[in-house]
């Protein structure tokens, strides 16, 4: 990896709402594709464009997610697709690309308004990515992990009245929890199987 001189931000969407600047280059020609499993670390902050005051929201290490499946905030989901393995980037974006028009009250991120001077800053590193696993061969714990992660994201979007995104997350959770669709092909404990079935019913109720 080599450090770059400061450069202009890349306008990802062409409307200045999502800007990306590579700060450390990665392995050439190693960009991930949709539905691959990425591992990233990121530092998320909010900045007041008028005063330049910056407030750290969260610092997350080695987060795994499936690209383009709404497992993570949108700005990261979009920008990581233009990054190579090992690349670090600075993202400057509208709040809506992280938390929609509603902002996020529990994280003190204001809703979008005409007099809103805030933007989000994300220091993002793409550690690695890999092809999607065969769900049937995952451990029960791993299937529960992804089922819970996607269910929680579904709940998050549902609370924010984003029903189409929440449904996408719930359906993603069912993919890991449904043993009819993806039978268990490894040895397992019966109690774990029952937990998997219970979580499946929980998500089915969310969808209903």
From TrEMBL:
Keywords: Repeat, TPR repeat. GO terms for molecular function: peptidyl-prolyl cis-trans isomerase activity; protein folding chaperone. InterPro entries: FKBP4/5/8-like, PPIase_dom_sf, PPIase_FKBP_dom. GO terms for biological process: negative regulation of apoptotic process. The keyword Repeat applies. Pfam families: FKBP_C. The keyword Translocase does not apply. GO terms for cellular component: cytosol; endomembrane system; membrane; mitochondrial envelope. Residues 31-113 form the PPIase FKBP-type domain. PANTHER family: PEPTIDYLPROLYL ISOMERASE (PTHR46512:SF1). This is PPIase FKBP-type domain-containing protein.
